[in-house]
Amino acid sequence: MVSRIINKNIQIYSYPNEFETCSGSLTIGDLHGNPVKALHILFRHKIIKFKEDVQSPHSVYEQFVKIYDQFGEILQICLENKTLQHFQKVKIENCLAQIAHINQKLMLLDSQSDQYQLLKQDKQQWFDKLSSTTSSNKLIEERFKEIKDQVVHLIGQFNSLMDKLEINNHKVLIRFLGDEFADRGNCDYLTLRILDFLTTNDLKTTHLLSNHGCEFIYAYEKMVQSSVFENAGFIPDFQTQSIQGLKLLLDNNVISCEKLTTLINRSFKPSLKILDYTLNEHGISLFTHAPVRFDSIELLARRLDVIYDGSTKEALGRTIDQINHQFSSFVNSNNIHTLFSTAEIKDVAHMTAEERVAWPAVYLTWNRWTAMKDIEETRPAGKNGYSLTYVHGHDIFESKLAYVHNLDTLCGKEAHKLEDKKIDEYMKFLMDHKYNVGDTTEAEYYMRNVLRYKVIDSDEYGLRSKLIKSQSSEKKSSQEDFDADGSIKKLSKLGEPVSSAVVVITIEENKVLPIFNPQDSSITTINFNSHTTESNFFTAGQ
Description:
The chain is an alpha/beta fold and 542 residues long.
């Protein structure tokens, strides 16, 4: 088996100038709600391509980027106008209240008195303010009409461009580690359309439950139950902008609730999991959105009444399959939102042992790592003679343990124009301080990570994926034959408090350019077929 981490600086807002192979399973870190990032990676790994009649792939790709950027600009204008409209409404209500108050006073006074005349003048001033505010509010309403026309045009263009795509490699599983939606991007509908394109063309995907994804799921499940699309608000609005872009389309009837429901039911819910895994010759790789302790798997299994078995790598894989099977009942009944209530948790990023036991799903989507947590006791390198590898996103902390891999980077996390502006500013700052004493840590970190993408390309699969791949017809394994009637009751417990294998690593790394050069790149290749060490660690080093 061969698995490799690709760790490079790329420019997602340009059509790839080089391409990567795909061995069968591609794991992508946090998407940050950015559909252009998804497109670029899919093109780069030759999973999708433009149809033969597309003469200039670079220019058509630029059109995707232009639509995305324009939508972001329109969304900012819309959000600003919504804020203005809110204050205008407050002003109008205040004016009306003041006028009503003055009228009450006037009724008690002699119309010939000086006080009466002064109050009449005050009343006129409030009428003038009311007229001015009402006129401003009408201008805002006109802007909203213009915005609707613009987004209708942009969505039409985007859908036309989607018709120019086709699948280039059907024999691949794409695993997203989360944050596909309700993040800092511009519009979740664009991401959904891309995912739907993959699904309707029979490409297999897996999506891991994430904290930003939970905001999206909450809004969807609320819409199903009450026809109101509104996210939970666990994450600040400025960090969930992409769902605001989707709301803009819904509010203006550019897309319908029925259309959104179809997309989600077809292209997101069926492939949603709490965690995932793959098997290799020496052990098992564990995939979660957030960095987690190894024992969190057993805690999650207990809360679902799943019998935990980690005696072998295959047994652990079956346990994870059973956890996801139970979770699917919650997915199908639109009750995922009941799993991630955080009201009783003091700090979701650093939960206590008792909180981890009571709310294991919250832990798997919110936890953050620190140097104090980064010890082998929390994430052991192996168990019962098989090796363990941990792959996650969500967090900026980089573990010193060679078998732990963080795929989260800043790539695609900010608006395109803001990213370009900050790159220019930090570049100038670093050049100015090349020979001067000064703290350049922030600038160096940004320049190292803002264009960096990290993915895992592998030919490893889980037990169920291997079964599907090897047989002509899908059949559920006997380990997944559970009582569906009790699944919801079992899953509800997630939200209720309750009292070494030998491996060789071959590293192939390109020369690192200056810290602020966006072309800095490196690739790490792990070859699992040789045996030259006697370490009890399963490593996939960066």
